[in-house]
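User: I'm writing a tutorial on reading structure tokens. Could you give me a worked example: one chain, its sequence, then its tokens, then a sentence or two explaining what the tokens reveal?
Assistant: Sure. Here is the example chain.
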Amino acid sequence: MIKTKSYVISKFVVLEAYKRVKANKGSSGVDNESMDEFEINLKDNLYKLWNRMSSGSYVPQPVKMVEIDKKDGGKRPLGIPTITDRIAQMVVKMTLEPEIEPIFHPDSYGYRPGRSALDAVGEARKRCWRYNWVIDLDIKGFFDNLNHDLLRLALQKHAPEKWVMLYIERWLKAPMQQPDGSLVEREKGTPQGGVISPLLANLYLHYAMDEWLRKFFPQNPFERYADDSVVHCRTEKEANELLHSLKARLLHCGLETHPIKTKIVYCKDDDRRGNFHTTKFDFLGYTFCRRRSKNRYGKHFVNFTPAVSNSAKKSMRQEMRRWKVHLRSDKSLVDISRMFNPKLRGWFNYYGKYYKSELYGVFRHFNRTLSRWAMRKYKKLKGHNRRAEYRMGRIAKDSPHLFYHWQVGLKPATGQ
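And here are its predicted structure tokens:
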């Protein structure tokens, strides 16, 4: 008698999952195995994973805990699975996502195919013109406090195969390995850094918040990107009542709103001139507030609109400093362009979508960095900052496509 596998999982799905994990890059987990090391025995490693997942014997390793800096100065814990576990999670994601993606609310944007953070920012921008008030919602430690029992209830409605539930259960229970090597058992939450975590987060908040708002507050549209949300209201009274109800709903689902970051905002502009304490909010790297704008006829007016936030600008400048471009005198300008142009292009395309002039100072900062590079590169420019700037300006005039921001006119001065 031929023994068959407990679960039917295609080898081709495992192979495709590996390709997607490789494309996403990422660091090693608790086994310290890099992608290059995993690929030395790629065929055997993928076969072992497929065999274990198909037989039900696959058990994930602990999740490696690392901390990254938060914009508010604190630390955010990330849980990094091993490469093998990331591939296994991708197999489950590829199986589960087609089942639950169609049920998600149209105002949910985070980590969904064909949707982006800029889509959410754009929709929030339009709705802030039509609605006078916004609830800027921040859920305190969402990924760390996600209730496993409630998540299971949601998954049972949609999981297409028994093995999907089996392995998600094991990932939820996998301990977190601290930097000192100790293991911490987990009874709630799903670690940020896991391949499957964003999908689980969306499913959880779909029932905890999106469906609840649709059912009880259909007149109040919202934009949600993972756990970052804004809800639009017509009046201050409506905003206060909705926020009170929403806090209670989230608490019922094991979640708590941040007492300081969650706030009610008045969308002040030329047509809305009331005096209220809070008249701006941040959403996905943009600050929404009153700004001087110009209409199609050249007339100026005050508009409530988004532009790159101060914290995003600070973060970009900090990353530029970490590049240490001024110390790379062994590199040519073409080399530097190849190294950093993709990042510059990405920043400009994202943060320059709305009110791009607020972004110009960041790219002028990079131009000054290039001038410092020129002073170290060319002896005759040493100590002559203005001459170095003019030199870079002439290069930008002759080769405007070398850096992305030069193409859109943000060139150094030529001195002419």
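What the tokens reveal: DSSP finds 15 helices and eleven strands in the chain. The longest strand covers residues 286-294.
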